[in-house]
From TrEMBL, chain A:
Subunit of clathrin-associated adaptor protein complex 1 that plays a role in protein sorting in the trans-Golgi network (TGN) and endosomes. The AP complexes mediate the recruitment of clathrin to membranes and the recognition of sorting signals within the cytosolic tails of transmembrane cargo molecules. PROSITE patterns: CLAT_ADAPTOR_M_1, CLAT_ADAPTOR_M_2, MHD. InterPro entries: Adaptor_comp_med_subunit, AP2_Mu_C_sf, AP_mu_sigma_su, Clathrin_mu, Clathrin_mu_CS, Longin-like_dom_sf, MHD. This is AP-1 complex subunit mu-2.
UniProtKB/TrEMBL annotation, chain B:
Residues 647-785 are annotated as: Disordered. GO terms for cellular component: AP-3 adaptor complex; axon cytoplasm; clathrin-coated vesicle membrane; Golgi apparatus; presynapse. This is AP-3 complex subunit beta. One of its GO terms (biological process) is anterograde synaptic vesicle transport.
Length: 386, 1065
């Protein structure tokens, strides 16, 4: 069905650690991986799927590591890739950063994790919160009476364990929107969209039942709240964390869930409604004689970086840069790279999305405080110059 | 280069130089009594394994610790055993007894891990033990252990495939399991061991569909892909009717070859079967699958989204585009490459699916080349008449890119657009010709190649371009481009009679310096010119051929010799040379530029095989749809909920004429609030409850408590909850399984249902005597029902406030519904007698100026649309105020929001000046007031028009008694009730005006009423058939209260607004 073995390779293609799940593909096959990769790269046809005879390598790269799944059978490709990404996610939760160094320092845990994540080529428990309960970093601590097994793996609610306690019950909600913009050289907007995520940091005791209310247009229409002063937004492509009851949402647009403990991304959405570009850039690039071009070229990275600490609304800034370049010229200077913009606007959402309420209900009936924070960021914000 | 980095890996280990010391040390540690030392030792050993070092000589020392009490040590010992058991089989057997003990442990997790390790030890000797362990675990109390058992099945199978039959038994047993935890794993085992035993799925099909949403993501992916295959074997193709309709539409312009080629097989058979074919009706189970997977598009896991998308692609009618935006979303992150590959395949067949998201596929300069090329592929596939200008403009930007491979791909893409879309061919060609003056040679060369292909399609008009190309031979150095130009000149030398010989002259001069492919084309050109214009070129040709005769390349020598024999008449007077002209200058078919993804869709999307575009081992072919649906009753399980209501729907659908391709669209919304949905919810709930709370039956009660608490929290919630319960109840009662406690009611309802069934049966018999396969005797359905009820109806027991609904009333309404659906004549007569014309009079669809003389108005006639009872019938009035006749009026390809469908009016062939005509078209608005946008086409022009229905037109009157009305109203309280106060103006206080105004606003039927100050109206929405009840309570002095009860809250709210407006005006 899916992977036969999973390897983690260093940047040179040497296996750091591997786990053979099915034993139907020889482990030595991995030696073909790197040469293939190099060869394909030279051909300019690098793809996340490489094949050597009957063996297929499905791989992804993370910082300086390659994660490779081998298979000789017809696997579900998207499942394998998702699994590899999930693996990275889990490792990152454990080691903050997933690098060669962190693997070397934690061979045992990595091996145990690989063991637990997948069984006979089929993903098993992949929720890092749950894994952390019984695969622990300082296993020495556990000598006393940790023979109790985590009940969570056997639960229907597989993402939260029972008996969590906090003195202060709080939920932090971060609404983060990033703006993707693509403008062509004539200044017309080709693509403008907002991709938003709602992240939660949950410090709640017990098994709380949460319900999130947004100013969702469809919901407003359903309940007759639309019109009048209530500003609503139309969310598209809403995606939810596993914990959200999708059938509920499908029926009546209620977002109800039992949250996992700690940080997680509750949902993501997209709005393709046109927004006025937040930051507009007009650029004039003039090329004078042979040796003078009016853009900066920084050695190595080939970019001009202009950073503005704070940018009050409605203001304009202008930069003019001249560069003296050596008179040696490439035959052709064509295809100017686009201008990218990075920015962050706190306490603001472009879409106007609002958290209307967050209801927290738990058996014990404690009071819990929800905190909300809004941030707008630049996503893929590009203005083409040619 | 790999071997030289070997040292990097062992850097920090103690080094392989003193292995023996190391191991002694470890052995000692393992032999102590201290757990901490053992643990330390085991950690070091596992670290060795992880690094790929051999630790097998420690086996005896490690295996002793398998019985260690410390769970941490134990865990690591397990890890070790799994790794080395195969190598040290005899020693491994020592540990088996420990596992066998572990299998009996009271702790479920220990049982599970014992089974897991036991099954991971690949030692043939223990096969019988494993088999036994799996069998036992399959009936374990704990779902977690059962899940582990499912995982163990493929392991055992790979170890010893002779066990297959026994394993299938276990799989069969586990498939019947009702917990979500097990479902994914057992389907995985099924796929691995016996994917061909599709019959095992029958009984579990509905359960799997319903559980699906609660299964963890990996399980979802596996189940969805299995169900896709299942559905392909069990249901009929939903596209068979559509394909005929659509093909005609599509043939009108381009790309028809594609479709034909692809569908050739199925279409032929379809065409053959056409006269005999029965109208297509989607099996309710097929619908169930589509419906239950849809919410999963909102999953955060790209793999799940992908799986659902492929399911929709392979199973859904064309109109239902399940994936759409959901797929363009993950483009930014995760599995972009795979997703794009699949999108590329899908976009060929279902362009409409991604068209609105065209811009998501715009290329960013930061994308890697592979992704760029895939995106380009998608953009090209999506290009059509309307969006081509945008696409081409975008392509222009790409041509300036630095990435040369990408630029070349872009030029090819332009070429493909040009061949696909005739209208822009010239534009593209011009653009490409401009590229010829580009400074980058690669760009020029690629353009030449593409231009050559384009010119081949219509060479006559493009003499100029060929001349231009001829000039380029002086500059272009890329061999492929030169060769292309030469070929073009040779092929079309008649269009450039003066230039061609000159080109040949130049080429003859540089012949020796040319690349091989160019040389071959020079010979080719020479031969063709010799045949058409021997006077000017005879000498040149001979010169070229002599040069070629002594070329180093034997291909060229051969070609020269062969050409000479053909064209130069020799004494022997070869028969061939007489036909040389025919041989060389035969008309050649233009090449077809097509997508490389064209035929990929025969691989199941999302599979590795699709990605490779080749069959990978173990690929399960996605079967073609069967021609005859296999017996659907095999899926009937004891749980009878599905049967009745969906039957009824189906009966209604039965009547639909065969050409209504809206079938698919009307389906989902109609069912959105009809019974299987609510059923599925309760079903899945109950099963998850039984999963988690197997040992403690208390959890159920707790759940309910929680529910109630929640209810108290806010009123609206409660009412919403109530509303749900009620709707659920309403639906369940007619099936004869109301409250199991009161036997009275039970018998009552059963008698009434059987009554209703009898009537409907007899009617049905008249209509369609042969085909009702799904029917099973009512008694057999009902009998087992009582058993299951306790679980399913838990929710319904809780609220004591809910009045038990007396069955007769329901039956009569449902009977009415039956009648409404079944007897066409009745329903056409009755409402037209009773309902006045819509308040919304003639609306303008197309103004005289905009329509260039064509004026189009529309009215809502309020007569049931004869083709499809779910459609609103709209009368369209055309009049021609211009002075030329307008010809070929018809509806052009509509771009409709999801769910909305149109039944077009028959084409009006001609409309003379001053003449008017009326046509009727049906629109299924899906119970929403979204506008239906479509094109009105004449022979020469297309107009974009849209019809937006007032909410009152989305329903049809229903007749009921006052009592029935009250009962139904009682069930639609809370959230479903909308009340508003208003003042009736003096002009609007008489009975007549009130009734008149209300019915003019909404297509409702009046319900007789005892009291004089109350007016009641009832109707059902057209698509879903939800009741809409309207009450107007007029008090003296003009004060009044308007109440609307309807499940469709949106409709209710809007209706209240409209009616108030009508009354107070």
């Amino acid at each position: 069905m899916s992977a036969s073995a999973v390897f983690i390779l260093d940047v040179k293609g040497k296996p750091l650690i591997s786990r053979n799940y099915k034993g139907d593909v020889a482990m030595s096959k991995i030696e073909h991986f790197m040469p293939l990769l190099v060869q394909r790269e030279e051909e300019g046809a690098l793809a996340p799927l490489l094949s050597h005879g009957e063996v297929h390598f499905l791989w992804i790269k993370h910082s300086n590591l390659y994660l490779v799944a081998t298979t000789s059978k017809n696997a579900n490709a998207s499942l394998v890739y998702s699994f590899l990404y999930k693996t990275i996610e889990v490792f990152c939760e454990y080691f903050k950063e997933l690098e060669e160094e962190s693997i070397r320092d934690n061979f045992v845990i990595v091996y145990e994790l690989l063991d637990e994540l997948m069984d006979f080529g089929f993903p098993q428990t992949t929720d890092s919160k749950i894994l952390q309960e019984y695969i622990t970093q300082q296993s020495n601590k556990l000598e006393t009476g940790k023979s109790r097994v985590p009940p969570t793996v056997t639960n229907a609610v597989s993402w939260r364990s029972e008996g969590i306690k906090y003195k202060k019950n709080e939920v932090f909600i971060d609404v983060i929107e990033s703006v993707n913009l693509l403008v062509n050289a004539n200044g017309s907007v080709l693509l403008s969209e907002i991709v938003g995520t709602i992240k939660l940091k949950v410090f709640l005791s017990g098994m709380p039942e949460l319900r999130l209310g947004l100013n969702d247009r469809v919901l407003f229409e359903l309940t007759g709240l639309s019109g009048g002063k209530n500003k609503s937004v139309e969310l598209e492509d809403v995606k939810f964390h596993q914990c959200v009851r999708l059938s509920r949402f499908d029926n009546d647009r209620t977002i109800s869930f039992i949250p996992p403990d700690g940080d997680f991304e509750l949902m993501s959405y997209r709005l393709s409604t046109q927004v006025k570009p937040l930051i507009w850039i007009e650029s004039v690039i003039e090329k004078f004689s042979h040796s003078r071009v009016e853009i900066m070229v920084k050695p190595e990275r080939n970019v001009v970086i202009w950073s503005i600490k704070s940018f009050p609304g409605g203001k304009e800034y202008l930069m003019r840069a001249h560069f003296g370049l050596p008179s040696v010229e490439k035959e052709e200077v064509e295809g100017r790279p686009p201008i990218g913009v990075k920015f962050e606007i706190p306490y603001f959402t472009v879409s106007g999305i609002q958290v209307r309420y967050m209801k927290i209900i738990e058996k014990s009936g404690y009071q819990a405080l929800p905190w909300v924070r809004y941030i707008t960021q630049s996503g893929d914000y590009q203005l083409r110059t040619s | 280069m790999a071997p030289c980095s070997r040292f990097g890996i062992y850097l920090f280990s103690a080094g392989p130089s003193h292995p023996s010391n190391w191991h002694d040390d470890l052995k000692e540690m393992l032999d102590t009594n201290k757990d901490s030392l053992k643990l330390e030792a085991m950690k070091r050993i596992v670290a060795m394994i992880a690094r790929g070092k051999n630790a097998s000589d420690l086996f005896p020392a490690v295996v002793k610790n398998v019985a260690c009490k410390n769970i941490e040590v134990k865990k690591l010992v397990y890890v070790y055993l799994v790794r080395y058991a195969e190598e040290q089989q005899d020693l491994a057997l020592l540990s088996i007894s420990t596992f066998q003990r572990g299998l009996k442990d009271p702790n479920q997790l220990i049982r599970a891990s014992a089974l897991r390790v036991l099954s991971s030890i690949r030692v043939p000797i223990i096969v019988p033990i494993m088999m036994l362990a799996i069998k036992e675990a399959a009936s374990d109390m704990s779902p977690y252990v059962r899940k582990t058992a499912a995982h163990a099945i493929p392991k055992l199978y790979s170890l010893d495939s002779d066990q297959k039959d026994q394993l299938i038994e276990v799989i069969e047993k586990l498939l019947a399991d009702k917990t979500t935890l097990v479902a994914g794993s057992v389907v995985m085992a099924f796929e691995e061991v016996c994917p061909e035993r599709i019959d095992l799925i029958h009984k579990n099909y509905r359960k799997l569909c319903n559980l699906l949403i609660d299964v963890e993501e990996w399980g979802q992916v596996v189940i969805i892909s299995m169900l896709t295959r299942y559905a392909r074997t069990q249901f009929l193709s939903p596209t068979q009717n559509e394909s005929l309709l659509e093909e005609n539409a599509e043939k009108a312009f381009y790309g028809s070859e594609e479709d034909e080629a692809k569908g050739a097989g199925s279409e032929e058979t379809a065409a053959a079967a056409l006269p005999a074919r029965k109208p297509y009706i989607m099996d309710p189970d097929h619908r169930l699958l589509l419906r239950n997977t849809k919410p999963l598009l909102q999953s955060r896991s790209a793999a799940v989204v992908m799986a659902v998308a492929q399911l929709y692609f392979h199973l859904a009618p064309k109109a239902e585009v399940g994936a759409r935006g959901a797929l363009t979303h993950p483009l930014r992150s995760e599995v972009q490459y795979v997703v794009l590959q699949n999108v590329a395949t899908m976009s060929i067949k279902r362009r409409g699916m991604f068209e609105p998201y065209l811009k998501s596929f715009y290329i960013r300069s930061t994308d890697p080349t592979q992704i760029k090329i895939l995106k380009l592929e998608v953009l090209t596939n999506l290009a059509n008449e309307t969006n081509i200008p945008t696409v081409l403009r975008e392509f222009q930007t790409y041509i300036r890119s630095m990435d040369k491979d990408f630029v070349a791909a872009t030029i090819q893409a332009i070429g493909r657009c040009a061949t696909n879309i005739g209208r822009v061919r010239d534009t593209c060609l011009n653009g490409l010709v401009q590229l010829l003056s580009n400074r980058d040679e690669l760009v020029v060369a690629e353009s030449v190649v593409v231009i050559k292909k384009l010119l081949q399609m219509q060479p006559a008009q493009h003499g100029e371009i060929i001349k231009h190309l001829a000039k380029l031979t002086d500059n272009i150095q890329v061999p492929m481009a030169r060769a292309s130009i030469l070929w073009l000149i040779g092929e079309y030398c008649e269009h450039v009679p003066r230039i061609a010989p000159d080109v040949l002259r130049k080429m003859a001069k540089s012949f020796t310096a040319e690349e091989d492919i160019v040389k071959l084309q020079v010979i080719n050109l020479a031969a063709k010119l010799y045949l058409t214009n021997s006077k000017q070129t005879k000498l040149l040709t001979q010169y070229v051929l002599s040069l070629a005769k002594y070329d180093q390349n034997y291909d060229i020598r051969d070609r020269a010799r062969f050409t000479r024999q053909l064209i130069v008449p020799s004494e022997q007077g070869g028969a061939l040379s007489r036909h040389a002209k025919k041989l060389f200058l035969a008309p050649k078919p233009a090449p077809v530029l097509e997508s490389s993804f064209k035929d990929r869709d025969h691989f199941q999307l999302g599979s590795l095989s699709h990605l490779l575009n080749a069959k990978a081992t173990g690929y399960q072919e996605l079967p073609d749809w069967p021609e005859e649906a296999p017996d659907p009753s095999v899926r009937n399980v004891e749980v009878p909920e599905w049967t009745k209501c969906s039957n009824r729907e189906k009966r209604k659908e039965k009547e639909k004429p065969f050409y209504s391709d809206s079938e698919g669209e009307s389906g989902p919304t109609e069912s959105a609030d009809s019974d299987p949905e609510s059923e599925s919810e309760s079903d899945s709930k109950s099963s998850s409850e039984s999963g988690s709370g197997e040992s403690s039956s208390e959890s159920d009660n707790e759940d309910q408590d929680e529910d109630e608490e929640k209810g108290r929290g806010s009123e609206s919630e409660q009412s919403e909850e109530d509303g749900k319960r009620k709707t659920k109840k309403k639906k369940k009662v007619p099936e004869g399984k109301g409250e199991a406690s009161s036997s009275d009611e039970d018998s009552d309802s059963s008698s009434s249902t059987s009554e209703s069934e009898m009537t409907s049966e007899s009617e049905e018999e008249q209509l369609e005597p042969a085909s009702w396969r799904r029917k099973t005797p009512p008694s057999s359905k009902r009998a087992p029902a009582t058993k299951e009820i306790s679980l399913l109806d838990l929710e319904d027991f809780t609220p004591p406030s809910v009045q038990p609904v007396s069955p007769p009333a329901i039956v009569s309404t449902s009977l009415a519904a039956d009648l409404e659906g079944l007897t066409l004549t009745d329903s056409t007569l009755v409402p037209s007698l009773l309902s006045p014309v819509s308040r919304v009079g003639r609306q303008e669809l197309l103004h005289r100026v905009a329509g260039e003389g064509l004026v189009v108005d529309y009215t809502f006639s309020r007569q049931p649309f004869s083709g499809d009872p779910h459609m609103v019938s709209v009368h369209i009035h055309f009049s021609n105020s211009s002075d030329t006749p307008i010809k070929g009026l018809h509806v052009g390809t509509p771009k409709l929001p999801a769910g909305i469908s149109i039944q077009e009016f028959p084409e009006i062939e001609s409309l003379a000046p001053g003449e008017s005509a009326t046509a009727v078209m049906g629109i299924n608005f899906c119970d929403s007031t979204q506008a239906a946008n479509f094109q009105l086409c004449t022979q020469t022009r297309q107009f974009y028009v849209s019809i937006q229905p007032p909410v009152g037109e989305l329903m049809a009157p229903v007749f009921m008694s006052e009592n029935e009305f009250k009962k139904e109203q009682g069930k639609l309280m809370g959230m479903n009730e909308i009340t508003e106060k208003l003042m009736l103006p003096d002009t609007c206080r008489s009975d007549h005006t009130v009734v008149q105004k209300v019915t003019a606003t909404a297509n409702l039927g009046r319900v007789p009423c005892g009291t004089s100050d109350e007016y009641r109206f009832a109707g059902r929405t057209l698509t879903s058939g939800s009741l809409v009840l309207l009450t107007l309570d007029a008090r003296p002095a003009g004060a009044a209260q308007l109440t609307v009860n309807s499940e469709k809250m949106v409709i209710g709210t809007m209706l209240v607004k409209d009616v108030i407006q009508a009354l107070t005006q």
